[in-house]
Amino acid sequence: MSKKTKYSLCIHGGAGVIIKNKLSTTDKNLIIADLKASIAAGENILNKGGSATDAVCAAVEVLENSMHFNAGKGAVYNRNGEHLLEASVMDGATLKAGALANSKRIKNPVLFAKTLLNRDDVVFISGDSVDALAGELGHPLVDNNYFDTSFRKEQWEFAQSLSDNTTFLDHTNLKMGTVGAVALDTHGNLAAATSTGGMTNKLDGRIGDSAIIGCGTYAKNKTCAVSCTGIGEFFMRATVASTVSHLMEYGGLSLEAAAHQAIHEHQAKLGGDGGLVAIDAQGNITMPYNSQGMYRAFVNEGSNKRGVFIWDEAEN
């Protein structure tokens, strides 16, 4: 009988401009509660011997159902005043993956991404076909206005009021909030999942790194599982998620060193802003970011440690 691996789970709720004196105590407490609920959902699966893939999807599903993050219910508005959702999942044991973009109606995109992971005829699907296939397969669909929130509408209206409405709104004016999770299960398998609404006032049809395997999401049992958050264009150009794995596998770097290089050197030198969460095959966790803050939390059975963070100091 093989030795049981100690599980680890790490999540993020987005990186960006998170200023201490501008985040109300009420909002802060609600966000922390959601992060804890997300960790609890994923840990419940891992503690029972469930798969890393199921755990990361359960953790992300909780955050998609919250209005406090830019995924699912709290997704931002695009330039046409609609919500276009994207997500991806990867299984480190098999290297199978599922990804989708530009969904207008899937309530929980991460769960549909997991369905795609188990198919052999598609990895990535986008546009109207996403919602049609999701409906055929029994995934809950909602009207696009289900994703409406007053906070995101105010952000979009501000973006629309700017004189230069031909480019993406400068990320420093708005909070981000892509969500994601990485896990190591008791069978020694890794998985990663990411979900987002993209950038406020984004072009219709624009796809970010969260939907692209190797850019915003990556998992490989030999190395690590990674989920990213930030300005997608830079994470795509730097293929950040898979770069962490490659630096470990081919460069011999530790998880922490590889993730640090990918965030603080590789994509940062392009002008990128954001962060990632990652776990390696030994259950080590790292959560680097080069923005003003990043919502994140973790639990590590091996070290018997857990924590919730927004800035550098633990919140619990």
TrEMBL record:
The keyword Protease applies. Keywords: Autocatalytic cleavage, Hydrolase, Protease. Substrate binds at R206, I207, G208, D209, T229, G230, I231, G232. CDD domains: Asparaginase_2. One of its GO terms (molecular function) is hydrolase activity, acting on carbon-nitrogen (but not peptide) bonds, in linear amides. The active site is at T178 (nucleophile). Pfam families: Asparaginase_2. SUPFAM superfamilies: N-terminal nucleophile aminohydrolases (Ntn hydrolases). GO terms for biological process: proteolysis. The record marks G177, T178 as: Cleavage. PANTHER family: L-ASPARAGINASE (PTHR10188), N(4)-(BETA-N-ACETYLGLUCOSAMINYL)-L-ASPARAGINASE (PTHR10188:SF6). This is Isoaspartyl peptidase. It comes from Siansivirga zeaxanthinifaciens CC-SAMT-1.
